[in-house]
Amino acid sequence: MKRLQKCCCAASTRTGTLITAVLGIILSIATIVLVWVVKRHRITFSTFIFDEDFDRKLSDLDIPRIILTINLCFTILICSLLIVAVQKRRSWLMLPWVVLGIVLAIGLLISVLHTSITYYLDKEDHVLIATIILIGGLFYLCLYLYLWAVVFSHYLDVRDEEERGRYRKAPYRR
């Protein structure tokens, strides 16, 4: 993969990485608030593994909300770790975010496809909703992958800097 030199054609990859981490924290906090503030009948969780009665029992006990909140708290922790890694220029502190980022991208793709296909196959006519979910989800996935590429490029730059030493000559001048 070719490394990116700039984020959004203007900012450095370092700045783009910081913006990505701050956005991750803000979106995680907003999602936690949204999940716990919105009434239960507006948000439904289903496992697709167990039967519908078991899913309803889990939702009544707020188990899906608790699991989602714990996952988002870990996302906040990893984004905070990314901010510290950028400030201290430590590549190994960036690695959890890089790994989690690509796993989340795969999960997002599966989720968008599953949700839109479910709406397309629904007996009621939800073609418009399914199309909006598909197009919007794929757009969001592309944006997310671009921001992941920015962070990954910065990770590679910091890792290379650590390997050759911070104050040594550039490799082409040896």
From TrEMBL:
<protein>
    <submittedName>
        <fullName>Uncharacterized protein LOC113492146</fullName>
    </submittedName>
</protein>
<keyword id="KW-0472">Membrane</keyword>
<dbReference type="InterPro" id="IPR031720">
    <property type="entry name" value="DUF4728"/>
</dbReference>
<feature type="transmembrane region" description="Helical">
    <location>
        <begin position="98"/>
        <end position="121"/>
    </location>
</feature>
<keyword id="KW-0812">Transmembrane</keyword>
<feature type="transmembrane region" description="Helical">
    <location>
        <begin position="16"/>
        <end position="38"/>
    </location>
</feature>
<keyword id="KW-1133">Transmembrane helix</keyword>
<dbReference type="InterPro" id="IPR053077">
    <property type="entry name" value="MARVEL_domain_protein_3"/>
</dbReference>
<dbReference type="Pfam" id="PF15860">
    <property type="entry name" value="DUF4728"/>
</dbReference>
<feature type="transmembrane region" description="Helical">
    <location>
        <begin position="66"/>
        <end position="86"/>
    </location>
</feature>
<feature type="transmembrane region" description="Helical">
    <location>
        <begin position="127"/>
        <end position="156"/>
    </location>
</feature>
